[in-house]
Design a protein that fits this description.
By secondary structure, the protein is α/β, with parallel strands linked by helices. It is 33% helix and 17% strand. It contains 5 helices and 6 strands, in the order αβαβαββααββ. The longest helix is centred in the C-terminal third of the chain and has 19 residues.
Length: 149
């Protein structure tokens, strides 16, 4: 009996099927939601998981602006962006970031839970985050399944 290792060629040729999942973020806690999304993007929920090959599935997140955080993180959690110029450090609280671009909060949380390498950048491209609901025709061809969290 030999151990199965997925190869890049298996994934590219279509031998390993990728599913599409749709996740409703309304009322979900940000960190717990991001953990489960990262697991699916990496493929760790599959028996064919191989650490050095991208065997994960696609994830579509809707209602990103309705995600919640516990405690006082809404006013205390900060997001930083530095322009590279003196005095160019910009900071926003979680509440301000949700108002400006809610999809960034989920993308940032999931990105922090992936490894820091080329494979993670490839896996992050399979994450689609939308503010508000999703039009009926947007991913109808992929036949996404609802992910119960």
């Amino acid at each position: 009996m030999s151990t199965f290792f997925a190869r890049k060629e298996d994934v590219n040729s279509g031998e390993i099927a990728r599913k599409w999942w749709i996740v409703d973020a309304e009322g979900q806690t940000l960190g717990r939601l991001a953990t489960q999304i990262a697991t699916i993007l990496r493929g760790r929920n599959k028996p064919i998981y191989t650490p050095h090959v991208d065997v994960g599935d696609f994830v579509v997140v809707i209602n990103a602006e309705k995600v919640k955080v516990t405690g006082r993180k809404g006013s205390q959690k900060k997001y930083y962006a530095y322009s590279g110029y003196p005095g160019g450090l910009r900071e926003r609280t979680f509440d301000e970031q949700i108002e400006k671009d809610a999809s960034f909060t989920i993308e940032n949380a999931v990105k922090g839970m992936l490894p820091k390498n080329r494979l993670a950048r490839q896996q992050l491209k399979k994450l689609k985050v939308h503010n508000g609901g999703l039009p009926e025709h947007a991913y109808a061809a992929q036949k996404p399944e609802a992910l119960a969290l």
